[in-house]
């Protein structure tokens, strides 16, 4: 007699049903594992490829917009061709884009390549949505199978949810990190940046923009552009509204504005529409104060004009020096070479002086220093030259040049024919009278009895007697006398603004 091992109360088909149930459970778990581990992974790879293709399409559109010579970005097209080979749904749109990109852009006509690129973008986005929908459907199936498998599907679903949650956290953290990086770049930018809504209100600004508005950043954000920057805002408002109405940006350009105080300011502005922000129009505004740049360019133009004027005057002066020196030298080429070289040296020193002060604010003592440069060190060391007068007396460039040439002529004459050629001394003094006139005296004292120079006057004496007074301006006077003890030369003229301090050079001064 065979013992009955079946549990009491259970029919004979229990074990077959239980085996079938266990088989179904194992099958459900296998299907769930397949869907979660294989199918979802494959979909994720496809999604990554589609998202990369979407980025390639955006980069390709940017390259096509900027091309000028009709060149085709082959690398981007090749990447999209590989994506279309893996995704048959994109083959038609990719082929249309490749054909349109191969055609050169036609001025004044809609860019076919851009339209084809947008169509490819829409096709990629549609495929991404479809895959996302398939992925959600597969998760639902997995949930049902897991519940039928007495909790096995629930565990697999929980694992999937946890994995998805981790991805979401990673994506959120990455988005926050990228936003923080972008904000740091905007805050550190020396250029004013602002985001405007459709009513031209400042939704976001960076510190540089707030500085241009001369207000704290918190006080600028949220205000209307014309409230934050009344003068400039009133100038830009029609331009910005027109750009929003056209759905276009403003190309980079300079604008000029004057505040209530009459202060002139120059700005560089540019604006671009913000894409992907919903139906409300928004613009990103770039603003930079270029007043210093404009001022420098204006100063440069003035300097070039002044330089051209000076060059012309210098050439005329050199021509006059050559002609006058030639007359004084007679037929002696050696004398002409020596005299002309000395006078060119004086002219050169006057230009070095003016160049060192930017062709303005030259001083009388600076002109005297430049004129006496070849002789001063020796004469001061031997006690043959004594100089005394105020420093900081500002003279015009033409006056400085004339004084350098005149004092150089006096020094050259004194070293060759005058007091310094006969162991004498020279006293050079200048002072400022209360009426603003400058009085300069060159007095020579010689140990030998000197006679007046020959009645034939050379260039140097003619310039000292008549030319210098003319170059020093209205009211200037120059008197040249030949005394038995030495040459006496007195000059008076009206110079510019002065801030005098004592300037004295005696024996032993450097």
Automatic annotation (TrEMBL):
<dbReference type="InterPro" id="IPR035965">
    <property type="entry name" value="PAS-like_dom_sf"/>
</dbReference>
<keyword id="KW-1133">Transmembrane helix</keyword>
<keyword id="KW-0808">Transferase</keyword>
<keyword id="KW-0812">Transmembrane</keyword>
<dbReference type="Pfam" id="PF08448">
    <property type="entry name" value="PAS_4"/>
</dbReference>
<feature type="transmembrane region" description="Helical">
    <location>
        <begin position="12"/>
        <end position="33"/>
    </location>
</feature>
<keyword id="KW-0418">Kinase</keyword>
<dbReference type="Pfam" id="PF07536">
    <property type="entry name" value="HWE_HK"/>
</dbReference>
<feature type="transmembrane region" description="Helical">
    <location>
        <begin position="140"/>
        <end position="162"/>
    </location>
</feature>
<feature type="domain" description="Signal transduction histidine kinase HWE region">
    <location>
        <begin position="306"/>
        <end position="391"/>
    </location>
</feature>
<dbReference type="InterPro" id="IPR036890">
    <property type="entry name" value="HATPase_C_sf"/>
</dbReference>
<dbReference type="InterPro" id="IPR011102">
    <property type="entry name" value="Sig_transdc_His_kinase_HWE"/>
</dbReference>
<dbReference type="GO" id="GO:0005524">
    <property type="term" value="F:ATP binding"/>
</dbReference>
<dbReference type="GO" id="GO:0004673">
    <property type="term" value="F:protein histidine kinase activity"/>
</dbReference>
<protein>
    <recommendedName>
        <fullName>histidine kinase</fullName>
        <ecNumber>2.7.13.3</ecNumber>
    </recommendedName>
</protein>
<keyword id="KW-0597">Phosphoprotein</keyword>
<keyword id="KW-0067">ATP-binding</keyword>
<dbReference type="InterPro" id="IPR013656">
    <property type="entry name" value="PAS_4"/>
</dbReference>
<keyword id="KW-0547">Nucleotide-binding</keyword>
<keyword id="KW-0472">Membrane</keyword>
């Amino acid at each position: 007699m065979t013992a009955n091992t079946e549990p009491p109360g259970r029919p004979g088909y229990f074990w077959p049903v239980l085996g079938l149930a266990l088989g179904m459970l194992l099958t459900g778990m296998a299907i769930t594992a397949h869907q979660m581990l294989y199918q979802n992974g494959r979909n994720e790879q496809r999604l990554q490829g589609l998202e990369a293709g979407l980025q390639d399409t955006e980069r390709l559109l940017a390259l096509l917009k900027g091309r000028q010579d009709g060149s085709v970005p082959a690398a981007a097209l090749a990447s999209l061709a590989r994506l279309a080979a893996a995704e048959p749904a994109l083959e038609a749109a990719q082929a249309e884009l490749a054909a349109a990109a191969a055609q050169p852009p036609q001025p004044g006509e809609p860019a076919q390549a851009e339209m084809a690129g947008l169509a490819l973008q829409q096709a990629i986005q549609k495929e991404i949505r479809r895959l996302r929908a398939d992925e959600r459907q597969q998760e639902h199936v997995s949930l049902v199978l897991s519940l039928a498998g007495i909790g096995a599907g629930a565990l697999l679903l929980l694992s999937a949810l946890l994995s998805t949650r981790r991805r979401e956290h990673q994506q959120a953290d990455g988005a926050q990190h990228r936003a923080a990086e972008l904000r740091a770049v905007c805050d550190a930018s020396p250029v004013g940046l602002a985001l405007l809504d459709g009513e031209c209100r400042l939704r976001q600004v960076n510190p540089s923009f707030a500085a241009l508005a001369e207000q704290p950043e918190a006080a600028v954000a949220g205000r209307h552009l014309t409230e934050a920057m009344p003068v400039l805002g009133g100038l830009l408002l029609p331009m910005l509204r027109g750009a929003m109405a056209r759905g276009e940006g403003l190309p980079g350009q300079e604008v000029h504005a004057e505040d209530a105080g009459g202060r002139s300011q120059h700005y560089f502005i540019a604006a671009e529409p913000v894409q992907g922000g919903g139906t409300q129009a928004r613009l990103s505004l770039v603003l930079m104060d270029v007043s210093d740049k404009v001022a420098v360019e204006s100063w440069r133009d003035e300097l070039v004009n002044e330089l051209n004027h000076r060059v012309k005057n210098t050439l005329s002066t050199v021509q006059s020096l050559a002609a006058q020196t030639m007359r004084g030298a007679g037929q002696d080429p050696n004398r002409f070479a020596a005299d002309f070289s000395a006078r060119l040296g004086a002219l050169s020193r006057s230009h070095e002086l003016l160049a060192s002060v930017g062709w303005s604010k030259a001083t009388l003592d600076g002109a005297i220093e430049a004129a006496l440069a070849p002789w001063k060190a020796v004469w001061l060391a031997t006690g043959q030259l004594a100089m005394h007068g105020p420093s900081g007396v500002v003279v015009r460039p033409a006056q400085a040049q004339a004084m350098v040439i005149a004092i150089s002529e006096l020094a050259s004459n004194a070293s060759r024919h005058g007091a310094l050629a006969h162991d004498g001394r020279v006293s050079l003094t200048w002072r400022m009278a209360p009426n603003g006139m400058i009085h300069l005296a060159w007095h020579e004292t010689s140990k030998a009895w000197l006679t007046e120079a020959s009645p034939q006057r050379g260039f140097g004496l003619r310039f000292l007697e008549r030319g210098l007074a003319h170059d020093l301006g209205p009211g200037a006077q120059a008197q040249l006398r030949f005394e038995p003890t030495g040459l006496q030369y007195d000059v008076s003229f009206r110079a510019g603004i002065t801030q005098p301090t004592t300037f004295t050079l005696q024996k032993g001064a450097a």
